[in-house]
Please model this.
Amino acid sequence: MIEYRSVAKTFADGTEAVNDFSLVLPSRTTTVFVGSSGCGKTTLLRMVNRMIDPTHGQVLIDDVDIATRNKVKLRRSIGYVMQHSGLLPHRTVLDNVGSVLRLNGMSRKEADRRSQEVLETVGLDSSHASKYPSQLSGGQQQRVGVARGLAADPNILLMDEPFGAVDPIVRDELQRELLRLQHDLDKTIVFVTHDVDEAFLLGDQVVILKQGGEIAQVGAPADILASPADEFVSSFVGLDRGGRTLHVEERDGRSIVVDASGKATGVLAR
Amino acid sequence: MTWGWDNRDRILDLALTHMWLSAIPIVLGFVIALPIGWYANKRRWFRGPILSLGSVLYSIPSLPLFVILPSIIGTRILDPTNVVVALTVYATAIMVRSACDAFESVSGSVLDAAEATGYSGPQRGFGVELPLAGPVLLAGLRVVSVSTVSLVSVGALIGVSSLGSFFTDGFQRDFTTEIMVGVVGIVVIALLFDAVLVLTGRLLMPWTRATARPRFERIRSFRYAFGSGPGS
Model:
């Protein structure tokens, strides 16, 4: 369980990224922070592994204030996946995945074995293991990034817009893959995105943020759609544009789902 | 060329001396410049002054430097140390700029990622920053190497023997063959050193060959090699 207690962050240049943020992120679920740029979502994420320390308040993992924990050790116990994979360009795929294991003192042989295993878990062919990141496609690099995040089998996985820079088809594939992984692995995932669709697809708990880390609404995707807290939320999730206001039209004996603009979006299953 | 054959022992002897006199400043210059460049990249205010100092040092003509060094560092006039110290100054002066550029070329997001995944400061410095600065460091080192090998010959003018002694000797005796032997010898050593550096780079940085080398690097080495240098 991750808990934010009245957390605030003002950067050295005076920018107030987060102002009095409190929230509990239940274990073994996916919490998605979603908001436009400048809402402090990445700041909140990076507080969990102390890449950013709050200026006020506390962040607790399993009831322990992480300010009391050694930064380096804390980071090694938490998986981190970022937008442009963040892989080390001078290390092979296998070494990248095993880097945290090696830092934790695991033997090379053991680390390699475990890395192979994780690469398989994220669906990357073992023929890529000895390549360098630059020899992989963007989607493959992100898979390696996820593998590295999972290698040390952390309880917590932080994901900072991990699929933001890949093309839509690959993104779709990676999102499905993450859902499958989460179904099998049951991690506590903190996921940051600016894409509402992605947030609703992946999140058990979705946190919609306004500027300064102010929570507009927290809840399961269905609850947010059923009762948006205010106009900001309605507009943010797209309820006001008609894309999510659907109705059914009968056509040749089948029920076609149509949005408010008249675009057919699917067929109702029976 | 019978002259060359008859004097092969002396040629070999001077070639070895020449290699020593070049190798020490190249290594020292690299070792000294590395932490300076690294630091200059962390503390931006330090960068301007240190680069200016480098340029000033590099613009001192080598011959006067060889001559005045004994009075500064207390060595004897004919001591080869004078040449080694002077060339180390030049090597450091060129290398500091390369080292600054090299550490600057390392992507900030990669360093951030390394930190976020649990690299400690030193592990990140030696395991990520240094190797990734490698290609630009190597480009700088190759220029330093060529420049140093050629500058060692100037030492002959103040009586420190090297392949440059064939120039002074050949000029005095108006004997072209001897001068040619000196020139060819120096070129061979410069090529040899360069080959060693390139091979070492390939061994230590296998990833650079997996990807295309950025073009700016080559342009930069070109600029270093043919930009203004110390007069002799």
Summary: Residues 221-229 of chain B have pLDDT under 50 and may be disordered. Chain B has one domain: 2-226. The CA atoms of residues 177 and 199 of chain B lie 33 Å apart. DSSP finds eleven helices and no strands in chain B.
